[in-house]
Amino acid sequence: MQVPALPAALALALASTVLLPPTAAQAAEPATAQQRSYNIPAGSLDQVLNRYAQDAGVMLTVDGALTAGRQSAGLRGSYGLNDGFAAILSGSGLAAVTQGSGYVLRRLPPQSGDVATLAPVSVSGSGAAGDATYVAETSRAGSKTETSILDVPQSISVITRRQMEAQNAQSVTEVLRYVPGVNVETYGIDPKGFDWVMIRGFNAQSSSDYKDGLRQGGSGYTLFRSEPFALERIEVLRGPSSVLYGQGDAGGIINRVSKMPQATPHYEAELEYGTYQRKQAAVDLTGPVNEDATLMYRVIGVARNANTQFTYPNGDRIEDDRRYIAPSFTWAPSADTRFTLMAEYLRDRSGGTIGTVTINGKPTNMRNGDPNFNRFDQDQKSVGYLFEHRFNETFQVRQSMRYGQVNAILDNLLLSGLGATGIQRVARRFDETMANFAMDNQLQADFKTGPLAHTVLVGLDYNRVHADARRDTGSAPALNPYNPVYGIDVPTPSTPIYDGLERTYQTGLYLQDQIKIAERWMLTVGGRYDWYEQKLENRLSQVDSKQTGEHFTGRVGLNYVFANGVAPYVSYAQSFLPNSGTTATGSTFSPSQARQWEAGVKYQPVGSSALYTVAVFDIRKTNVLTNDLSNPGFAIAAGEVKSRGVELEGKFSLGSGWDFTGSYTFVDAEISRSNDGTKGNRPSLVPEHSASGWLNYTFRDSLLAGLSVGAGVRYVGSTYGNNTNTLKIDSHTLVDAGLSYTYDKQLTFSVNATNLFDKDYLATCSDLTDCYPGNKRAVIGRVKYKF
């Protein structure tokens, strides 16, 4: 089989980061005509396919999103290899096609006339073995329906479980390092564990945080964290997305997809040891509870004791410890009904804010804080469910709900100036609790009106956040910069500086129609109306405020999918995000608004596991807060930021053993309106150019069978540390690598290194005395056993 040809523009962009693999050799065809007897009972489609591939003695690669929630009648009788696949997949719209030395499951290309398809009852998630390639074919992030990525009129990146495993990503930000349009770790490594992310030049830390399609609300230091070992994939939808998700910033959303219970038994345990005394153990257990697999379970657990790269001068390290457990249960009485109950508990203990003392833009080993005082403790728990039911060939309903709570305590020492005794410090304590309730109700109808095939989605969602915060201050000993002393006692701060309750509510009603025209065109039209409310109760000042509003957003997009898998598209989308605070007259601000034009081409060669994307975008965000020149100290919603650019992405997985992901991003971002003297400047933390490439090769049929070797390069262009553009941060290029060996398909030894050559670099600086060093080299060894 030949390596899929890259479009010329994409090939040029990626050539500087990684070489494409040589032509894959044609593997000898198995004896497809030879008949064998099979007796495979009915069950989930992935269970039946796995059993069939095992009995037939062939390797089958499956994108779990294609089989999730589908049932099969099994297979009984004598069949040739291809005939058996055809019988199992009859009416499903799927086919098993040869790839390298095995088979890969593919969605059948559009045909003229009607194609009978098995109506899927899908859940977010995929098979026990995860997405078996780097390339996903479908995603719900861009439409809230199970839609081919080629049919979504926006740019989407999906990071599958296979890619996460190859790179041994230890956090969500590490997962996103190779995604176009995304800038991560903008403040370097954060011991508090927050995901610092920018998308297309806009903040995506909190307002863009989604899990299993539901927003994860947050406030202050109470932000939800995600354990990457418990995720099946991560989906990045770039560009304004309020038409489906409500309030959010202009860059897009990041949807974390949980691992789900599976009908096929799968058990794995792993141990890790790495740099900075990192020790981690994890287990993932899933399978059926009863004989007919209508009840399934999954239990995921992680325990970690570790330090970070930061050390106090006295030798004390800043820790990064975690305990995590996530049980889930699925009841699937038929192919039409599925109910999954999910719970999660996470406990993190870390050393809190770094507080690196910086002199003339050079970080030192001296810390603002003290190991006896600085800490960040977070306890997080949630419970929720996913429910789906198909009434008939036309109607199906879905409902998802999650209630979560985060408790956080941050003790921190801050610099307050210079004095006769040295660097003056103050002690702060942040004691915060946040509770978030989210629900999404969807009714989907699939029907035809003449030559038009409609997928209509009507939805009603609700999100509520209650955040209770108390912040105290207190005195702290000064720090002698010439002879710093650590390990001292600092009194617990007790003077309140803030004590308040914040409550936010959002209700959204949305409608979307995906119209298939002549099997090639896809017109997507959607609209949404939101009602939102924010209440602030300051128990210290006895001053309360309330903000309410309503907002409409829409999206329209058009795709055309050629028979060869080339799919040009164009779209227009909107978003909004409420602004907190009041004007000089006490009035609430209008929400910021964004609109985007996007055009691009997606290419997924028929019969191959590959996806190439080129996207051009133009975003304008208005009502950005800026100085009120008539009332110093106050703000008005009159600013504007523009972001225009180009994104290229290529992914492929070949049966011959090659896996690749690569990207290039150009962002021309500008503060186009401002009253603070920054008009015409580039927003902080936004590189103009960035690129990445990761190539992995797994030996299949040789003495080295089971050995896998991978390497990647990441380039992040220069940025500014402030909007005044007075602090320029140099670009940096980092190299990552991975090596693994799997014995007997059960036991895997691996080692991964990030920043392999230990390059020193700055992530950013807010001023010459406040800089954030980048991630140093980290090496992690892992032993995994599947049974």
Provide the CATH top-level class of the largest domain: Mainly Beta
Content-based structural category: mainly beta
Strand content: over 45%
- Number of helical regions: 7
Main pleated-sheet profile: 22 strands, antiparallel, barrel
Helix fraction? under 10%
From the coordinates shown, what is the CATH architecture of the largest domain? Beta Barrel
> How far apart are the first and last residues' alpha carbons, in Å?
33 Å
Number of strands: 46
Which residues form runs of ≥5 with pLDDT under 50? 1-31, 110-130
Q: Which geometry do the CA atoms define?
A: globular
Classify the fold: give the CATH topology of the largest domain. Maltoporin, Chain A
- Number of domain units: 3
- Going by CATH, the homologous superfamily of the largest domain would be TonB-dependent receptor, beta-barrel domain
Membrane topology: Multi-pass membrane protein
Protein name: TonB-dependent siderophore receptor
Family: Belongs to the TonB-dependent receptor family.
Keywords: Cell outer membrane, Ion transport, Iron, Iron transport, Membrane, Receptor, Signal, TonB box, Transmembrane, Transmembrane beta strand, Transport
